[in-house]
Amino acid sequence: MANPLSVCIITCNEEANLPRCVASVGFADEIVVVDSGSTDRTVALAVEAGCRVIDQPFLGYAAQKNMAVQAASHQWVLCLDADEWLLPGAEAVIRQALATHRPEVAGYALKRHTYYLGDWVNHGGWWPEYRLRLYDRQRGEWVGDSIHEDVEVQGAVARLDVEVGHFSFRDIAHHLNKINTYTSMRAQHWHAQDHASAGWLQLIGRPLWRFCRMFLFRGGWREGQRGFIIASIVAFYVFTKYAKLWELQHGQGQGKGPDVPVWDAVSDARVRNGNAMIK
């Protein structure tokens, strides 16, 4: 390989996913794992696999990934999430790209393929899902907010015929748990940034449009009932983040009950005794 390669992975309690990810990039010259306080065997597994492990309290997704990239030893880096892995054939394509890349190319987008509810998702806009993951760290960095992050590079981006497996959701319950976390983070970010109010358009129109775009216009219906479920959950995600924004903007997110008079048994007894004495 003309240019050595560092693989950068951020983790937190990823013992179920990390071995698959690390095994798929064994050809790399270096694997850097930045862990944010795992309480399972993530760190031990990374060390056993020969990774260089760095402990770093979570800084946010973009900042955490930039920290991993800065710790890498080589100019070209491949950034993967722990629930992602390279499918067979990736090594040869990546080696060829790094050996022959044009000077103006600062990064490569890879094809992410999600596995969910028992099979690969091939429609609905989830395949092929190109993500810029292989890049020259001297000309690129991760940018984004508390949830969504992407790589921005100074230079051209080419596409590689490299497939990245993605197993982000174990099941529907796990998916909904992630939605609960991400929608709260998104709503809080919007609220802090004084985002436009969550009106009828956002609460009804945007979820409906997302469902129609995914299920009807982008072929999610080809996945059958599984495609309908996925599109419905994604629409629910859109609805929930705006509903939580509405909650914050209207001051309804404090968990307080209604204002009602509180009955004081001691005072009530004293009043009744006083009334009895008067009589």
Automatic annotation (TrEMBL):
Coiled coil stretches, renumbered: none
Domain of life: Bacteria
Pfam families: Glycos_transf_2
SUPFAM superfamilies associated with the record: Nucleotide-diphospho-sugar transferases (SSF53448)
Domain Glycosyltransferase 2-like, chain residue ranges per copy: 6-145
Similarity comment: family membership: Belongs to the glycosyltransferase 2 family. WaaE/KdtX subfamily.
UniProt cross-references to PANTHER family, sorted A to Z: GLYCOSYLTRANSFERASE, POLY-BETA-1,6-N-ACETYL-D-GLUCOSAMINE SYNTHASE
Protein name per the record: Glycosyltransferase 2-like domain-containing protein
